[in-house]
């Protein structure tokens, strides 16, 4: 439902357009407010406001006897153009407000989803009994140049090797013949003490890897 201000403005614009179209010629007398009210199906008060707006803009004149006369087709055109511009600005402002509201809603949803992801990740990490850990093969480590099979890592440390990172490459589930090199990062899983056992094993002297 149109607000009363929008309604009488719309009627004023329609009357101005009818003047431009030639329905009401310059100097023509418009029907009384009551008749116009019945034509537009609005109250006489709404017509009074519409005519008052046209009168202010110099499109029509209203005599003391409330006779309405068309005085300027040019001003009718200017009136319409003015309100077209105003409506365009108003429409753009409304669209911007709507887009800003949608952006705020999307930002809120995005933040909520990120929070959920973080919470789920933390929850899963706490629930997972086999958290992958990484340990680097140092230059002096006795494992350099040896295969996983030769090293018998699981038997010695209880660690299961799930991957080997070498530079930008990752070997997933390396086989027993995978050979370790300096700088490799061994990705492994095991119980809560597997990291300590693995570090101790890698630091064993080369002469006595047992």
From TrEMBL:
<feature type="domain" description="HTH gntR-type">
    <location>
        <begin position="5"/>
        <end position="73"/>
    </location>
</feature>
<dbReference type="GO" id="GO:0003677">
    <property type="term" value="F:DNA binding"/>
</dbReference>
<dbReference type="InterPro" id="IPR000524">
    <property type="entry name" value="Tscrpt_reg_HTH_GntR"/>
</dbReference>
<dbReference type="InterPro" id="IPR050144">
    <property type="entry name" value="AAE_transporter"/>
</dbReference>
<protein>
    <submittedName>
        <fullName>GntR family transcriptional regulator</fullName>
    </submittedName>
</protein>
<dbReference type="GO" id="GO:0008324">
    <property type="term" value="F:monoatomic cation transmembrane transporter activity"/>
</dbReference>
<dbReference type="InterPro" id="IPR036721">
    <property type="entry name" value="RCK_C_sf"/>
</dbReference>
<keyword id="KW-0238">DNA-binding</keyword>
<keyword id="KW-0805">Transcription regulation</keyword>
<dbReference type="InterPro" id="IPR006037">
    <property type="entry name" value="RCK_C"/>
</dbReference>
<dbReference type="Pfam" id="PF02080">
    <property type="entry name" value="TrkA_C"/>
</dbReference>
<feature type="domain" description="RCK C-terminal">
    <location>
        <begin position="119"/>
        <end position="204"/>
    </location>
</feature>
<dbReference type="GO" id="GO:0003700">
    <property type="term" value="F:DNA-binding transcription factor activity"/>
</dbReference>
<dbReference type="Pfam" id="PF00392">
    <property type="entry name" value="GntR"/>
</dbReference>
<dbReference type="GO" id="GO:0006813">
    <property type="term" value="P:potassium ion transport"/>
</dbReference>
<dbReference type="InterPro" id="IPR036390">
    <property type="entry name" value="WH_DNA-bd_sf"/>
</dbReference>
<keyword id="KW-0804">Transcription</keyword>
<dbReference type="InterPro" id="IPR036388">
    <property type="entry name" value="WH-like_DNA-bd_sf"/>
</dbReference>
């Amino acid at each position: 439902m149109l607000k009363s201000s929008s309604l009488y403005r719309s009627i004023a614009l329609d009357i101005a357009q009818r003047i431009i179209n030639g329905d009401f010629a310059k100097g023509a007398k418009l029907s009384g407010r009551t008749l116009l009210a019945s034509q537009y199906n609005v109250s006489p008060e709404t017509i009074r406001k519409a005519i008052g707006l046209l009168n202010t803009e110099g499109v029509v004149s209203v005599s003391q006897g409330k006779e309405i006369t068309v005085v300027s087709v040019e001003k009718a055109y200017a009136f319409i153009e003015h309100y077209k511009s105003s409506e365009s600005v108003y429409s753009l402002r409304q669209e911007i407000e709507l887009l800003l509201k949608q952006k705020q809603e999307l930002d809120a949803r995005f933040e909520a989803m990120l929070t959920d992801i973080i919470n789920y990740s933390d929850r899963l990490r706490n629930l997972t009994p086999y958290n992958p850990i990484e340990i680097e093969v140092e230059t002096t480590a006795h494992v350099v140049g040896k295969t996983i099979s030769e090293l018998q890592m699981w038997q010695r440390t209880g660690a299961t090797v799930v991957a080997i990172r070498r530079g930008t490459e990752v070997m997933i589930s390396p086989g027993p013949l995978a050979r370790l090199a300096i700088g490799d990062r061994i990705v492994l899983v095991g119980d809560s003490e597997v990291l300590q056992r693995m570090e101790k094993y890698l630091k064993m002297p080369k002469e006595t890897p047992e």
